[in-house]
Design a protein that fits this description.
Helix 3 packs parallel to helix 10 and helix 6 crosses helix 7. By secondary structure, this protein is of the alpha/beta class. It is globular and about 70 Å long. The N terminus is likely disordered. The protein folds into two domains: 171 residues, Lyase, Ornithine Decarboxylase, Chain A, domain 1, CATH 2.40.37.10; 173 residues, TIM Barrel (Alpha-Beta Barrel). The strands form three sheets. Strands 4, 14, 15, 16, 17, 18, 19, 20 and 21 form a nine-stranded mixed beta sheet that branches. The structure holds ligand LLP. The site of ligand LLP has 23 residues, from helix 11 and helix 12.
């Protein structure tokens, strides 16, 4: 097991923790009532499957918790978690804004119908072209991460006769206690402006022509499972806002970032009720417009990756289950040693005697592994599995390494499913490539 989950759940635990999944004795594993075997029969594997009901369910859980706290906060979906237009359209349908970190993400959000004023542009290294495009589109807010960037935004805004609505991203120097590769709020990493530099920079930025300085932002990391690090960071933000106001600055907005952790095993993940309550306690009385930027929480549990068994091999006393999905499809286990539950699709497979196996992909890298020493029933060739909680940071981090085409994707809604991305054609892998005359 890894740092993402405390103990290893078995198949029954994984199922029990996920009401959207059910095992039918005939049809096999159902997701939102749809047999996953039927999807695999029609479009093959590997394939991403997303559940619209699960997305709406997560949004509603979060909104209910905020309302109960009570906290008024606008939700801006972090597009980087899953940028498919169909997913963005679902978010827009629930009145969410978007948090984007590139011109590509901004264009996707606009294309899916999210209004420019509901889009926040974050990111540590926006190019001049991106800033110009964002201002041209009428973006709602730019989260600036340095003095250098503020100067750049001000100059571009003046050149375009526009006013950039900016907030300053503060680095509160709080360790969110997650995987080192996804912690962003500690001193010494590349993100944000050190808290000590904020007062002078805020005053400076407020005087720059072309800028409307609206407030502060922070984001301390991802897959955060306890409100404690958030509380520490939000208290620092509240103190900072008081200090800025005491200096005579106007602070209208506080962007609380994302990072809400989900349960990858049979644990519940971050309690959104506790999170919302903590927001009310720490920053609820500040008289600022609050926003949050969750990605994983909204889409992670709503997606899975279907795969088939290419081969079962025994070597060195071990059983290796080789799938047709690989690290090029779902990179998280290889990159972060992250845990994903894996369930057989067939009820017969599911009932089989379980023993330890390494579940791997066919790519030529030792790190191409979905699970090491996982209890798994006997699986025959062509048996299928679902790799769970793959909706966030799954398809978006895919590559075509080993010349493997991008997997197909399907969206389930109200018992129906639609292909939202066909499997990439092999020929598409080189469609844009040229062989220059001189290299032959
Ligand atoms: N806002 C900002 C400024 C961010 O950098 C991020 C994520 C988010 C919001 C959304 O965070 P979330 O709510 O999804 O945790 N690839 C990694 C996660 C990287 C997160 C990067 N920033 C993974 O697969 O775990």
């Amino acid at each position: 097991m890894d740092s993402f989950s405390a103990h290893e759940p078995d198949i029954a635990d994984l199922l029990a923790a996920r009401p959207a999944l059910a095992m039918d004795a005939q049809a096999g594993l159902l997701f939102e009532g749809v047999p996953l075997n039927a999807i695999a029969d029609s479009i093959g594997t590997p394939s991403w499957v997303y559940g619209a009901g699960s997305v709406r369910g997560q949004i509603s859980r979060l909104k209910t918790a905020l309302d109960a706290a009570p906290v008024k906060a606008h939700i801006h979906y972090a597009v980087k978690a899953n940028d498919h237009l169909a997913i963005l359209a679902l978010m827009r349908g629930q009145n969410l804004g978007a948090d984007v970190v590139s011109q590509g993400e901004m264009r996707r959000a606009l294309r899916a119908g999210i209004a420019a004023r509901d889009i926040v542009f974050s990111g540590v290294g926006k190019s001049a072209e991106e800033i110009s495009a964002a201002l041209g589109a009428g973006i709602g807010q730019i989260n600036a991460e340095s003095a250098e960037e503020l100067a750049m935004i001000a100059a571009i805004a003046q050149g375009q006769n526009a006013t950039a609505h900016v907030v300053l991203r503060m680095n509160p120097d709080i360790d969110a206690g997650t995987h080192a590769k996804i912690t962003t709020g500690v001193a010494g990493n590349k993100f944000g402006i050190p808290a000590a530099d904020i007062p002078a920079l805020y005053a400076h930025a407020a005087r720059l022509p072309g800028l409307h300085v609206a407030g502060l932002a922070l984001h301390i990391g991802s897959q955060i499972l306890s409100p404690a690090p958030y509380r520490a960071a939000y208290e620092i933000a509240a103190d900072m806002i008081a200090a800025l106001r005491a200096q005579g600055q106007i602070v209208e907005t506080l962007d609380l970032g994302g990072g809400l952790g989900i349960g990858y095993g049979d644990d519940p993940g971050l309690s959104v009720a506790a999170y919302a309550h903590m927001i009310a306690q720490t920053v609820g009385a500040l008289d600022v417009a609050l926003m949050i930027e969750p990605g994983r929480f909204l889409i992670g549990p709503a997606g899975l990756l279907l795969a088939s068994v290419n081969l079962v091999k025994h070597a060195g006393g071990k059983r290796f289950i080789v799938l047709d999905a690989a690290m090029n499809d779902l990179l998280r286990p290889a990159l972060y040693d992250s845990y994903h539950g894996i369930l057989p699709l067939s009820a017969v497979d599911m009932r089989g005697q379980a023993s330890l196996a390494d579940i791997v992909g066919p790519v030529c890298e030792s790190s191409d592994m979905f699970a090491a020493d996982r209890l798994m029933p006997e699986l025959a060739l062509q048996s299928r599995v679902a790799i769970l909680d793959a909706g966030a940071y799954g398809a978006v981090m895919s590559s075509t390494y080993n010349a493997r085409p991008l997997a197909a994707a399907v969206l389930i809604d109200a018992g129906q499913y639609k292909v939202i991305r066909p499997r990439q054609r092999i020929e598409a892998l080189w469609a844009d490539e040229q062989i220059p005359d001189f290299s032959t």
